[in-house]
Design a protein that fits this description.
This protein has no helices and eleven strands. By secondary structure, it is mainly beta. Strands 2, 4, 5, 6, 9, 10 and 11 form a seven-stranded mixed beta sheet that branches. A hairpin with a 4-residue loop joins strand 7 and strand 8.
Length: 123
Amino acid sequence: VQLQASGGGVVQPGGSLRLSCRASGSTPIKYGMGWFRQAPGKEREFVAAIRWGGDSTSYADSVKGRFTISRDNAKNTVDLQMISLKLEDTAVYYCAARNWGRTSIRPSEYNYWGQGTLVTVSS
């Protein structure tokens, strides 16, 4: 399975960005998807996740109310809509897939990872 993340860029505080992740190759029959991020000098942290059916989502407290995760299984894509961006949202954002349709906040429980896309929030 290959995951390709895109949509990163430079934005001012308060601005918005939409990240997208496309899965290709031999995708699992069902897979949960998550977004994680890693800022310089920090560990990779959970941002948001969505189960296969799209009926269950979860978010880190730091992004609740500002980020929205969604998926289109027909297109094998997962998006992360980010609004009201803050300086502390600056990081490389990674998408990840987990077999069997479930999700987790733990990076170690994901089976496949994308290459990351850089989001820079700067005034």
